[in-house]
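Intended use. Records like the one below are meant for learning the mapping from a protein sequence to its folded structure. Do not use them to infer anything beyond what is encoded.
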Amino acid sequence: MSLVALAIDMILPALPLLVVEYSLSDSNHAQYVISSVFLGMVAGKLLFGPLSDAWGRKPAIYIGLVLYIGGAVVCLLANDFSFFILGRVLQGVGVAAPRVVSIALIRDRFDGREMARIMSFIMMVFILVPAIAPALGQGILNYFGWQAMLWVFVLTGLLSLIWFAVRQPETLVPEKRRPLAFSTIFSAIREVISHPASLGYGFAIGFVFAGFVGYLVSSQQIYDLIYNRAAEFPYYFGALALVIGSASIVNARFVVRHGMRKLSVWALLGICLFSIIAITVEFAFPEPLVFQGFVIYCLLTFFCIGILFGNLNTLAMEPLGHIAGIGSAVVGAGSTIISLVLGTLIGQAISTDVMPMLLGFLLMSVATLVAFAWVDQKMINQPIHP
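Structure written out for the chain above:
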């Protein structure tokens, strides 16, 4: 699953060079190098979810990893920016397989709060990659050039494929597999979108991740153009990623006692409070939020996001154990579309200050709380507090 973070975060320090390399008219266009991966993941999730239900978890991930490696090769051969973006989309399609099928694989073995605990540990490992990826990318950039990053994608894809093949047993036994037919797929999609919990919490995932995507696609510009801290960007980015990882550890410890939903509501209220304080400070002074204040805000907000990541995925997947592959795909694709569209709008709005990011986190958190309330209303006579 960490290949997703590697494909996105390692290349962040190279975005200014890609603006020059491909003669881009607007530095904001470099954000498409990141958002194109998310676009590919939408299609990939819808493809590999049904495939994993029909053929098993491992074959679907094999195919995805091959496409991921192929996308990196396309980027290496790209002689214009459109061709480069095509390769990144292909990487997104491929990397969707380990991202979405791994969740189904976990759901095959665990459910409820135990699944949330396992997902928290998975997210803890997942976060280690973005903690080091920008610094790794900066080092590769300094000594070998930005093209060498693409060779790292090829190498890590191959190593992951071999390791997964050797170490991971298949979790979907043949008698539980579903035929690969459009009628079966559409039936599963209807089931996902008709269940209030999977639908409502799926929207919640999209809203929460939208604010994070807005930060992610613009983070290099924020540190470079707004705060003039380009040289320190990989280290601050990595430190914030470790905060998310530490939140996953905390969540793993407390989720069995307090439940996913209660912890998620606390985290959302925290993001709202921190955002309101930061927005008030930003309005009170004409200059951009001071760098130390920005870092403190990100530390607090990202800790809350770390609480939300594993819990929201588990809440959405809870009613879908019998269709874990297609269920994970539909929830993942739908939430990615939401986060991609809204997150890109947030990122494109950032230019001279971080106000769009602050407003984005606030509005997305409020929207998530509304989604929670909608699930409550729809499932008023059913247990909804796992």
